[in-house]
């Protein structure tokens, strides 16, 4: 890792070493604290809190609140997510699970009919809405691990909502993509991101959201009961009901977030900490890295066609296992230890040859698990490439990485006008087959690929915090960023901006259309791959921080990276 000895945040700009097209690498360096997020204004909101003496949790909640304002289309109070937290005081890592869950009205067959599929009940409107957990997760983190009040950390977000921010042209595209459903499920004149004639606002528009500012002030004054047991919750239930769904105040009042033990793995001596189910992400990041550990990735080199092939085959096997074995562990027994086993990974690596396997059979991780073997019909819903992720490191040594979502960009397309936020469509992450263990049931949490991950170095010190949006590509994005740093010695932003590959089935190798290496792709085609060039957004939008320790291991220097595939920015001081 490269280090710039400076007291202020500096930017290092270099040519990306990995592809066609001028993708800039912009590493940011700082001594004291840093936030890397999907929008610069959100990162600045977090840093503002750090500079006022707040810790990483305080800054994380401030960042998340600001993202609700400036990236309203991707995450926020109407959704849910996961957080991974390293405490410098205890040297422990914990995970917070505030994933949305199905309301009491959910049934296994609610999305199985032809009408449900034709009218996309799971994706849009009230039937698609899961019980939001975001606010309960954020306030739990603040009250138990933070040092500031909600009112204090909400100040930057309230200011952004009241004074406004200048929108980016990309946001118009996200709104335009859901223009029909936004009009279908909302009354004219109620959407702040539509102009006076009912069209999506143009990029460069000053967008003010006074209703959202009012909501944050109300929560600061009355606490989260105003959301889960009071007037905001009542407005959510009305919005769900008027758009064809059913959610009750009991659903909201009964929602529980959970403090969970992280998934723990190792990769070449580095310790990997990530989220357990209801997210499958952490388990499968560890599984994928375990398989890749059987190969000398460093010697193969970043542009190696063999490395890309092996990674693609390992990815396909991992997703075959995810489809067959992974579920909400409150509803099914899952071979978590087996899936994360080094012995199982060696067995899986032994199945990889030079051949491109169309759809690998799932392995048998139960052989490497101590739990009683069970079987069930798996299956997954249809995760999308929205969502938002951020990382925070404070001046006290604490680290946070958090991934949050309302599922689709623009969520369910249902807006709560009185309080200024979109509601999630997380029910779309359930399987539509009522026989699947991942079919909807009251209180069940749908599977996710969200993987907010913290990596400790072989000496047990923070090495990296990393996370990404992008549905199934989250797992491969996080794994590739870790490999890029550990195996190829890349800086944080180099690791993030490097070309990523995703091969979930067959011979279709997907990568971005703006940073590929032509010689590498030509070689992959000769091997039998069909190259599919995607918009950069497809492979995620990773945000991360790396830690460079001095020779004595007593002081650190922060290296932030933020993904140009989104509007990412790292800000430090």
Average per-residue pLDDT, rounded, comes to 93
Distance between the termini: 19 Å
What's the helical proportion of residues? 25-40%
Give the assembly state of these chains. Answer: single chain
Large-scale geometry: globular
> Rg from C-alpha positions?
22 Å
Strand fraction equals 15-25%
Q: From the helix content, strand content and strand pairing, which structural class follows?
A: alpha+beta
| Count of helical regions | 19
Kindly report the spatial arrangement of strands forming the biggest sheet: 1-2-20-19-16-15-10-9
EC number: 2.3.2.2, 3.4.19.13
Signal peptide: 1-22
Pathway: Sulfur metabolism; glutathione metabolism
Family: Belongs to the gamma-glutamyltransferase family.
Describe it:
L-glutamate binds at residues 99, 405-407, 429, 471. One of its GO terms (molecular function) is glutathione hydrolase activity. This protein has 573 residues and is of the alpha+beta class. The chain has 19 helices and 21 strands. It has helices at residues 40-51, 56-70, 114-118, 134-145, 150-163, 169-177, 179-185, 210-222, 225-228, 231-242, 249-253, 281-292, 297-300, 305-325, 336-339, 342-350, 473-488, 492-497, 518-526, and strands spanning 10-15, 24-30, 34-37, 80-86, 93-98, 165-166, 206-207, 258-260, 263-267, 270-274, 388-393, 399-405, 415-416, 421-422, 453-456, 462-467, 508-512, 530-534, 543-549, 556-562, 569-572. An eight-stranded antiparallel beta sheet has the order 1-2-20-19-16-15-10-9. Strands 8-5-4-12-11-3-21 form a seven-stranded antiparallel beta sheet, with helices on one face. A hairpin with a 6-residue loop joins strand 19 (543-549) and strand 20. Helix 2 packs parallel to helix 5 (150-163) and helix 12 packs across helix 16. Residues 1-20 have low confidence and may be disordered.
């Amino acid at each position: 890792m490269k280090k710039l000895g400076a007291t202020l945040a500096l930017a290092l700009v270099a040519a990306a070493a990995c592809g066609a097209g001028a993708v800039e690498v912009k590493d940011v360096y700082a001594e004291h604290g840093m936030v890397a997020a999907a929008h610069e204004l959100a990162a600045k909101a977090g840093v503002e809190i750090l500079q006022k003496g707040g810790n990483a949790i305080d800054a994380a909640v401030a960042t998340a609140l600001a993202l609700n304002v400036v990236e309203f289309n991707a995450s926020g109070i109407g959704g849910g997510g996961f957080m991974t937290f390293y405490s410098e005081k205890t040297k422990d890592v914990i995970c917070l699970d505030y994933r949305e869950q199905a309301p009491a009205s959910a049934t296994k067959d609610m999305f199985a009919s032809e009408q449900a599929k034709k009218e996309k009940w799971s994706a849009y409107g009230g039937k698609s809405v899961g019980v939001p957990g975001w606010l309960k997760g954020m306030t739990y983190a603040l009250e138990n691990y933070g040092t500031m009040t909600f009112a204090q950390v909400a100040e930057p977000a309230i200011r952004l909502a009241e004074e406004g921010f200048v929108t980016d042209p990309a946001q118009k595209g996200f709104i335009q993509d859901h223009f029909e459903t936004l009009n279908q499920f909302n009354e004219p004149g109620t959407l702040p991101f539509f102009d006076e004639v009912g069209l999506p606002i143009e990029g460069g528009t000053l967008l003010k959201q006074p209703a959202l500012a009012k909501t944050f002030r109300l929560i600061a004054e009355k606490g989260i009961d105003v959301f889960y047991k009071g007037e905001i919750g009542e407005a959510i239930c009305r919005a769900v009901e008027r758009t064809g769904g059913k959610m009750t105040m009991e659903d909201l009042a009964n929602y529980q977030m959970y403090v969970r033990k992280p998934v723990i793995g190792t990769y070449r001596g580095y310790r990997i900490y990530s989220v357990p189910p209801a997210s499958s992400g952490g388990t499968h990041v560890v599984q994928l890295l375990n398989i890749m550990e059987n190969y000398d990735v460093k010697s193969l080199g970043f542009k190696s066609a063999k490395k890309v092939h092996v990674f693609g085959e390992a990815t396909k096997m991992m997703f075959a296992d995810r489809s067959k074995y992974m579920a909400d562990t409150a509803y099914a027994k899952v071979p978590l230890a087996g899936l994360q086993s080094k012995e199982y990974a060696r067995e899986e690596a032994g199945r990889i040859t030079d051949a491109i396997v169309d759809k690998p059979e799932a392995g048998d991780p139960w052989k490497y698990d101590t739990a009683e073997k069970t079987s069930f019909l798996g299956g997954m819903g249809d995760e999308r490439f929205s969502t938002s992720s951020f990382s925070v490191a404070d001046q006290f040594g604490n680290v946070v990485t958090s991934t949050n979502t309302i599922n689709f960009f623009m969520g369910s397309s249902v807006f709560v006008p009185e309080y200024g936020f979109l509601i999630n469509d997380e029910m779309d992450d359930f399987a539509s087959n009522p026989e699947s263990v991942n079919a909807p049931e009251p209180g069940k949490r749908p599977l996710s690929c969200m993987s907010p991950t913290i990596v400790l170095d072989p000496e047990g010190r923070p090495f990296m915090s990393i996370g990404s949006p992008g549905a199934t590509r989250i797992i491969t994005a996080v794994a590739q960023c870790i490999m890029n740093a550990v195996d190829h010695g890349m800086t944080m932003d180099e690791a993030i901006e490097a070309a990523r590959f995703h091969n979930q089935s067959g011979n279709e190798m997907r990568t971005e259309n703006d940073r590929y290496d032509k010689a590498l792709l030509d070689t992959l085609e000769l091997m039998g791959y069909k190259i599919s060039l995607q918009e950069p957004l497809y492979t995620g939008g990773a945000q991360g921080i790396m830690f460079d320790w001095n020779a004595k291991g007593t002081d650190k220097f922060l290296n932030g990276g933020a993904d140009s595939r989104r509007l990412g920015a790292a800000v430090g001081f």
